[in-house]
Structure formats: structure tokens, C-alpha cells
């Protein structure tokens, strides 16, 4: 039986973030989500936050701490894409994606670590992507931001590992979401051909790995990159 913890999931109002929050709730944890708009699943506390703004992250953590106590598990999931070929990509197209996906994770982890250091316990889980290691044409910005999370987690592990704090990366492949559902059938079939499992993952399959990483059972795993990609990124 896992100890009930206070969990914060960034970008928990849709997609994988919503599934992660749902999974933690089902196990009896105290769950808060950040969202710029929309709400987390029923039973969670939704706080407004923009991960590009340190002040708004601080306010979100303060609100969660007042309601549920110090955040013990943080899942940095908020992200964005601005896909296009590199030759057409502007500086802003690149830096805005880095600022949300990578710098945003840094801001969230930095604020979360304060309470974790005091408690001498913490679980930091960063949601990356198979393209962070595999690369993807048209996603130079997104791929670089998701790759950067690996260096972030491993450096945090070296800094905080002796204090009962772990930092890990989960790298999902193609997931069944509204976005993949909108792809033409032929394109979906094409993608599935490149995946040894022959199918997309469900968001719940990603969420279950994250919930396990946050559990008491995973206390000796840190600085790891765990792919949930049906074998798509093997060897990367």
C-alpha cells in the first residue's frame, strides 16, 4: 500500500496530464493540477498557473500547500508544440517552446524542491517524449526541450539524491489523444508501422508508469529515463 501523498500535476486539465491526475486520485492521493484554462478531474484541486511565469508558479504552490500541505510529488507535464521545418522556424518559435517545456519544468522543480528538502522526501517526474532522444523532423524546438529534461533530472538527482528525493523522466511515444485521432487514417497506419507494438498507447498506460515512479516501491530509482513507447525509440 502506497502512502497517500500530496501530488501536483502541471497541465492537468487535458490529455496525459488529466489521465495522470485521475490515476493518482484513484489511489487515494491528494491531487492538485495546474491549468491555464479548464479544470482537472473531479476530486482534484485546480489552480491557475502559467509555467513561463515564476510568480504564478509560486502562487499556485502556495495555494496547494494551504489546502493539502507541502507538495511531495510533482509531475512536470505542461508542454506545447510549435512544429515546422527548421529553415522556417523563427527565434521565437524556438525559444517559446523551450521556455514552456524546459524552463517551465525548471521553475516548477525549483519551487517544489523547497518543501521536499524540508521533508527529506520527494518525487520529481518530468514528462518528456520519445522524440527527445529519437529526434523528429519539424520538431527541432520540441525535441531539444524534451531532451533537456534528461539533463535536468540527472543533475537534480546528483544535487538532491541524498535527501530522499528522486528525479526521473518518462518518455511517451504516440498516445491516443484528440490530436492523434484527427490524423488521417493512412498517416495513423504509417505511424503504427514504425512502432513494434503496432498501436498507440492509451494515456492511462503512461499515467500508470508515472504513478509507480511516485510510489514507495520506486525509492531507489533516480535519473532514469523510462520509455512508454511500444518500442519505437529502442536504443536511443
TrEMBL record:
<dbReference type="InterPro" id="IPR002347">
    <property type="entry name" value="SDR_fam"/>
</dbReference>
<dbReference type="InterPro" id="IPR036291">
    <property type="entry name" value="NAD(P)-bd_dom_sf"/>
</dbReference>
<protein>
    <submittedName>
        <fullName>3-oxoacyl-[acyl-carrier-protein] reductase</fullName>
    </submittedName>
</protein>
<dbReference type="Pfam" id="PF13561">
    <property type="entry name" value="adh_short_C2"/>
</dbReference>
<comment type="similarity">
    <text>Belongs to the short-chain dehydrogenases/reductases (SDR) family.</text>
</comment>
<dbReference type="InterPro" id="IPR050259">
    <property type="entry name" value="SDR"/>
</dbReference>
<dbReference type="InterPro" id="IPR057326">
    <property type="entry name" value="KR_dom"/>
</dbReference>
<dbReference type="GO" id="GO:0016491">
    <property type="term" value="F:oxidoreductase activity"/>
</dbReference>
<keyword id="KW-0560">Oxidoreductase</keyword>
<feature type="domain" description="Ketoreductase">
    <location>
        <begin position="5"/>
        <end position="178"/>
    </location>
</feature>
Amino acid at each position: 500500500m502506497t502512502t497517500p501523498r500530496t501530488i501536483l500535476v502541471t497541465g492537468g486539465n487535458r490529455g496525459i496530464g488529466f489521465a495522470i491526475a485521475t490515476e493518482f486520485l484513484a489511489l487515494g492521493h491528494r491531487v492538485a493540477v495546474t491549468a491555464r484554462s479548464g479544470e482537472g478531474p473531479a476530486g482534484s484541486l485546480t489552480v491557475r498557473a502559467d509555467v513561463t511565469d515564476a510568480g504564478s508558479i509560486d502562487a499556485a504552490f502556495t495555494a496547494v500547500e494551504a489546502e493539502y500541505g507541502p507538495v511531495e510529488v510533482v509531475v512536470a507535464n505542461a508542454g506545447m508544440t510549435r512544429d515546422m521545418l527548421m529553415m522556417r522556424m523563427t527565434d521565437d518559435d524556438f525559444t517559446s517552446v523551450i521556455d514552456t517545456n524546459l524552463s517551465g519544468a525548471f521553475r516548477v522543480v525549483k519551487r517544489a524542491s523547497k518543501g521536499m528538502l524540508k521533508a527529506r522526501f520527494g518525487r520529481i517526474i518530468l514528462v518528456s517524449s520519445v522524440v527527445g532522444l529519437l529526434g523528429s523532423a519539424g520538431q527541432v524546438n520540441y525535441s531539444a526541450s524534451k531532451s533537456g529534461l534528461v539533463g535536468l533530472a540527472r543533475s537534480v538527482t546528483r544535487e538532491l539524491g541524498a535527501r530522499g528525493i528522486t528525479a526521473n523522466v518518462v518518455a511517451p511515444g504516440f498516445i491516443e489523444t484528440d490530436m492523434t485521432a484527427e490524423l488521417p487514417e493512412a498517416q495513423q497506419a504509417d505511424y503504427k508501422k514504425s512502432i513494434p507494438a503496432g498501436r498507440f498507447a492509451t494515456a492511462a498506460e503512461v499515467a500508470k508508469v508515472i504513478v509507480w515512479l511516485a510510489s514507495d516501491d520506486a525509492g531507489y530509482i533516480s535519473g532514469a529515463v523510462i520509455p512508454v513507447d511500444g518500442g519505437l525509440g529502442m536504443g536511443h
